[in-house]
Design a protein that fits this description.
The chain contains nine helices and ten strands. The strands form two sheets. Strands 6-7-8-3-9-10 form a six-stranded mixed sheet, with helices on both faces. A four-stranded antiparallel sheet has the order 2-1-4-5, with helices on one face. A hairpin with a 2-residue loop joins strand 4 and strand 5. It is globular. The termini are far apart. The structure holds adenosine-5'-triphosphate (ATP). This is ABC transporter ATP-binding protein. GO terms for molecular function: ATP binding; ATP hydrolysis activity; L-isoleucine transmembrane transporter activity; L-phenylalanine transmembrane transporter activity; L-valine transmembrane transporter activity.
């Protein structure tokens, strides 16, 4: 059987006495769109940092496309095809949208003109084509989120780790972003998204992992995990779980 795009086995990380991630394992097949959910402080961002190489694990391993990349620095992982976005979006505010996206394209392309041309193609995919000439600092919150996606996409990833790309967006902006993320996955890019917006998780994710207090407490389809008593207890609460079951997801 082919190895999964991402294989995490027994990953652990403590900060002082706090076990932020404990014995976490998951397999993400190529081209799959999956979500990582859980309460604040559950260890989701720490897990992303361990997978992408921003932090070294105390124990466990990370394999990407069959190669052991445990503890490898982020820039090497990006070269292999794994790119992450950040919760707090920090574009180069005085540079144009086009130049910001080109930064991502430069990972595999030294030529400036080619990087700028690639930036245009990526801007189309995320709905930023009309804003290419704007300084990034003038974008709305929703525009910045699209820019963060575009910069990551410009690196030509096989796996995108999206850290709350929908946070801070209003319901209409969320609804407009869903097809953008879905199209990225449909184009063959594996996506693992940390997300609190359950509307997005229910509509997008083919698989969901749930972390609580550093441990993986559930894994399954969105429908399976949202009716799991452990997930309702640790994260959703009964009201939200009921609304999700009825299809009223916000
Ligand atoms: N660099 C650090 N030093 C010390 N403690 C940390 C550090 N990073 C995270 N933590 C702690 O580890 C735990 C897990 O944090 P993490 O940010 O991974 O959770 P999260 O699930 O991403 O939360 P949120 O949904 O609020 O972003 C928290 O208790 C946090 O305070």
């Amino acid at each position: 059987m082919a190895s999964p795009l991402l294989r995490v086995q027994g990953l652990a990380k403590s900060f002082g006495g706090l076990a932020a991630v404990q014995d976490v394992s998951l397999d993400l097949p190529e081209g799959r769109l999956a979500a990582l959910i859980g309460p604040n402080g559950a260890g989701k961002t720490t897990l992303f940092a361990l997978v992408s190489g921003f932090l070294r694990p105390d124990a466990g391993s990370v394999a990407f496309a069959g190669a052991d990349i445990t503890g490898q620095p982020p820039h090497l992982n990006a070269r292999r095809g794994m790119t992450r976005t950040f919760q707090i979006v920090q574009p180069f505010a005085s540079q144009t949208v086009r130049e910001n996206i080109a930064v991502g394209a430069h990972l595999h392309c030294a030529d400036r003109r080619e990087a700028l041309a690639r930036a245009e193609a990526v801007a189309q995919r995320v709905g930023l084509a009309a804003q290419l000439h704007k300084p990034a600092g003038e974008l709305t919150v929703a525009g910045r989120k699209r820019l963060e996606l575009a910069r990551a996409l410009a690196t030509r990833p096989r796996l995108l780790l999206l850290d709350e790309v929908l946070a801070g967006l209003n319901p209409q902006e969320v609804a407009e972003m869903l097809p953008v993320v879905r199209e990225i996955a449909a184009g063959g890019v594996g996506v693992l998204m940390i997300e609190h917006v359950m509307q997005a998780v229910m509509h997008l994710a083919q698989h969901v992992w749930v972390l609580a207090q550093g441990r993986m407490i559930a894994s399954g389809t969105p429908e399976e995990v949202t009716r799991d008593p452990r997930v309702i207890e640790a994260y959703l609460g009964h009201g939200t779980a009921r609304r999700l079951a009825q299809g009223a997801v916000r």
